Amino acid sequence: xxxxxxxxxxxxxxxxxxxxxxxxxxxxxxxxxxxxxxxxxxxxxxxxxxxxxxxxxxxxxxxxxxxxxxxxxxxxxxxxxxxxxxxxxxxxxxxxxxxxxxxxxxxxxxxxxxxxxxxxxxxxxxxxxxxxxxxxxxxxxxxxxxx
Length: 147
Fold this sequence. Notes:
The chain is an alpha/beta fold. The chain is built from five helices and seven strands; from the N terminus they run E-H-E-E-E-H-E-H-E-H-H-E. Strand 1, helix 1 and strand 2 form a beta-alpha-beta unit. The protein starts with a strand and ends in a 5-residue tail after the last strand. Its main location: cytoplasm. InterPro entries: Rossmann-like_a/b/a_fold, Universal_stress_UspA, UspA. It comes from Planobacterium oryzisoli.
């Protein structure tokens, strides 16, 4: 069974990325390991008194992101692909590469945005960083619309 790491950020490209990853997993009899990396500063805000931490904001945001991950996992499973999900906080590149090692991943599937001719914007800086740092293949799925 092929182990596929699928980082998601719940952006407008997530649906296209999910479709491509599911098709790839179906072709390779793969299992998808969904991961969302939340920033470590979710509950912080700047106010009159400087930086303040609001744990309830962080808890609510994490709860909502877990709910979204669960919905994505159910969509993948409904298409006949085995899946599990994980939410972690930290630096996305580092967390994704650690998770790929933990799951003995064969591939990391990322999306491209196609918003301009510049490489960083076209592919995405996280995708670029992962392709440079990963010891396993990074499959890049074009997620831009054909409009």
